[in-house]
Amino acid sequence: MSPPxxxxxxxxxxxxxxxxxxxxxxxxxxxxxxxxxxxxxxVYVRQSTPRQVLENRESAEMQYALARRAVALGWPEERxxxxxxxxxxxxxxxxxxxxxxRLLAEVGLDxxxxxxxxxxxxxxxxxxxxHQLLELCALFQALLADQDGLYDPADYNDRLLLGxxxxxxxxxxxxxxxxxxQGRLNKARRGDLFCHWPMGYVRSPSGELAMEPDEQARAxxxxxxxxxxxxxxxxxxxxxMVHHQVHLGIRLHSGPNRGQLEWHRPCRETLLNMLHHPVYxxxxxxxxxxxxxxxKRPGHPHSGRIRVSAEACLVLLRxxxxxxxxxxxxQANQRQIRENxxxxxxxxxxxxxxxxxxxxxECGHCGCRMTVHYDGPAKRxxxxxxxxxxxxxxxxxQQLAGRGLDxxxxxxxxxVLKPAALELSLAAAGQIQEERERLHYHWKHRLExxxxxxxxxxxxxxxxxxxxxxxxxxLERHWEEALQAQRxxxxxxxxxxxxxxxxxxxxxxxxxxxxxxxxxxxxxxxTTTAADRQTTLRHLIEKVVVAVxxxxxxVDVTIHWKGSMTSQHELIRPVGSYEQLRDYDRLMKRxxxxxxxxQTTRVMAEQLxxxxxxxxxxxxxxxxxxxxxLLSRRGLCESRPPAxxxxxxxxxxxxxxxDLAGSLAMPQPTLYAxxxxxxxxxxxxxxxxxxxxxxxxxxxxxxxRRLRARxxxxxxxxxxxxxxxxxPRPDS
Length: 732
Description:
Elements: H1 5-8, H2 34-37, E1 40-44, H3 50-55, H4 57-64, H5 66-72, E2 80-83, H6 98-108, E3 112-116, H7 120-123, H8 127-139, E4 143-145, E5 150-151, H9 156-189, E6 201-203, E7 209-211, H10 215-231, H11 234-243, E8 248-251, E9 261-264, H12 268-276, E10 284-286, E11 315-317, H13 327-339, E12 361-363, E13 371-375, E14 380-385, H14 387-392, E15 398-401, H15 402-417, H16 421-462, H17 469-499, H18 506-517, H19 519-524, H20 530-540, E16 541-548, E17 554-561, E18 565-572, H21 584-596, H22 601-610, H23 624-633, H24 643-649, E19 654-656, H25 657-664, H26 668-677, E20 681-684, E21 692-695, H27 698-711, H28 721-724
Parallel strand pairs: 1-2, 1-3, 3-4, 12-16
Antiparallel strand pairs: 4-5, 6-7, 8-9, 10-11, 13-14, 14-15, 16-17, 17-18, 19-21, 20-21
Helix pairs in contact: 8-9, 10-11, 16-17, 16-18, 22-23
């Protein structure tokens, strides 16, 4: 079988093949058959690292010399193919080894009769890849050869020996790796292993970790931790640094500028890595970014890394490095980062919505964290416990309007802050002044660095001979660029000074003290955002547990304060119906009592309001139509005039409007709609504002009952005409 054109056009065999003449078969010819000689002999050449390729020349020569053995076994020189595409690639996996994958493809196409390697570890150090090659060679009757002998994978004894060699090759890889890892781990246990020192640190000549000598770079690192403690989220720290043009000083670990300090704009991932790294708290750690094999992606050699906590690292040595923050503050930062995650078990970051208790409110019945809902065009705030409904399909646990609860908790916060008003008023101005001084300090560092760069460029320009124009032109351009950068920075600093004066005037300080002393007014100011109130609340409260009492308007509220203190409160919430009111039965008894006393609905509504009764929506007064609806639900109607007057006003088969609605057990508005449509005979006393009287004999009452039953259906068809047409009145 002749090889394809692509095989004959490949790289030439090693030059030493030209001097090789006919030779006897040193391995014996019993395994080599004509069908093998008709196909290719492939020599696979590989070394693990680029350094081995450059330095271990003898190993490469030995592997290339296998081509002469193929010729000695009977293959013509032009039928020997050398694959050396995997030089400098590890054999622990077939991924990324194009030469090995090419070899498998050619064996599978039945183009290969012999595969040669200096040893089995050159072909593969993974049993999975090695046995894949064995299966293909056995299936397509290809032989394997190394410097020890010739093997037929289809033969049981040879297959067993090749399997043992593959296992030993993989075991050797693990032995070498464990030996290197143990040496690395032993050095890490002493705290002397530094792969890449973090930002804000440098390696001293003695090999120890020291703080960054550049004063501005150290100040920027301190700003990151101080602002995270103040704001609580990485995104707010990032926005602060971008707004004030604060850049991070990073020393390069590789390249021609290795060790030089460069200034890069901040990014979220860099800030998050700084907050997670325990070295800033003075702790040496090793193994905080292990590789999870389940997360590795093909073609991405650095994928699969995960971040573990400091306590889960292989090595953690406290108080071994210079620290920017304390260990307690580092742990507090980690707790804050975990709380900022948007998950059911964490309270999440401060949001921009009007909710005051978002992330802090828990259900007193099931213990789940309640969610925040904004309903309708008015964005009505509601707290809902819906986790079990969403995850398990159970009924909704509880929900309540959020405005009243937020007001209750807000009043408690103001009561707690009232004794600290004087202290807050004295500290507010100092904090603002300290913040402005820090920003001015950072700008002065930037200006000082810009002046130094310009003076340095000037010295370099003046140090060159004027006649050497090839160099002076370049240095002159660098000097101009440095002067332009300095001028631009001075203009930016001038704009910053105009926007934020360096010192607060006496009037401004007095205003700040006045606002801080009147905390309720400061809390209600339009400039105080919902996020500001939430941040203040989270400094004082751990959580708020609410439990609605039997689906009534009463809610038990438990506030868990910082420091393991709790306070109990009771809240009256708006509900959807009168039946949810805890005193509904007492309310109805009072309404029936007033009716039996002959009071009208208007008088009853006024009396209920004076006695302090409340509607489900927390309205402060009752209305006459509300009282009528409640009476209608009990099948009652408004009290009629005295009997003597009733006999004079009502004619035969006439009803007072409310009496007929109560007899039909229907709402009065529905009966009034029938009246307007002409479905009943009626008249009105004393003009437009008098009471309505309806005429209905026994037949009419029966018709109205049947119409009432018909109107309760969801059909879109109009009612029959015989139900909507009243019979003529005898006296009309």
